[in-house]
Amino acid sequence: MNRRDSVLNIGVLALQGAFIEHSKILKQLGATVVEVRKPEQLTHLDGLIIPGGESTSIGLIAERWGLIEPLREWVQAGKPIWGICAGMVLLAERAEGQKAGGQPLLGGLDITVNRNYFGRQVDSFEMLLDTPKIPALGDGTELCSAIFIRAPVITAIGQGVEPLASLSAADGGKLIVAVRQGSILATAFHPELTADIRWHQLFLDMVCGQYRNPAPA
Ligand code: GLN
Description:
There is one protein chain. The chain is an alpha/beta fold. It has a single domain, classed as 3-Layer(aba) Sandwich (Rossmann fold), CATH 3.40.50.880. Helix content is about 20%, strand content about 30%. It contains five helices and twelve strands. The protein has helices spanning about 20-30, 55-65, 70-75, 85-90, 200-210; strands at about 10-15, 30-35, 45-50, 80-85, 90-95, 110-115, 125-130, 145-150, 155, 160-170, 175-180, 185. A hairpin with a 2-residue loop joins strand 11 and strand 12. The chain is globular and about 45 Å long. The two termini are about 25 Å apart. Bound molecules: glutamine (GLN). Glutamine (GLN) binds near residues 52, 55, 85, 115 and 150. Glutamine binds near residues 55 and 89.
C-alpha cells in the first residue's frame, strides 16, 4: 500500500458466505475494513466486495435488510465493486440457471452468467489460471491459483467488458471466469481462499485509480 497516500476504507458485504477471509487479506494490505450489514454502512467507503456464498441467500437477505436499492445505487454511481462467485452472479445483468421464481439481482455488469455451470459436474476444484493483467510474483510466478466452488461461468459479455481470465472448455472453446467493466471487477473463483493476494491488490489499485469518496465531514 505504499503507493497510496491514505488508508482505504473497504466494505465487505457480510450477509452470508466467505466474507471473513477478505477482511483478513484487506487488512494485511493496509486497508480498513467494514463488514456491511446495513445500508448506512456503505457511507464513506472507497470500495465494496460482494463475497462468494450463495447468491439466492445473499439476495434474499439483502432484500430483507433494505440493501438491494442502496447496492444498486452504488453500482450505478460507478463506485468500485468486486463480486466473487455468488457476488459475480448478483452483479450480472442476466443469469441463467436461476432458482424457480427468479432471484434478486443487482445488475450493472453487462454479462450473462450461468449460475452453477461447474457445480453440475464437480463441486469444487483448484487450477492455475493464466491472467496477463495480474503482475508476476517476486519469484516470477505468473499463473494465479484459482479455487472454483459450485462456480458460475460467464457465457456472454457486452462491449465494454474486458475478459481478464478464461479457461479451456472440454470442446476447446474458452470459458470466461474473470472480467472488468469500468469500476466493476468480477471473478467466478475465490482468490481469498488462496495465499495469492494479487487480485485483492488489483482491486485496491482500481479503487485508488478510479474513485475516492470525499473524506467524512
Ligand atoms: N453458484 C453459486 C450461486 O449461485 C455461487 C457459489 C459460490 O459463491 N461459491 O450462488
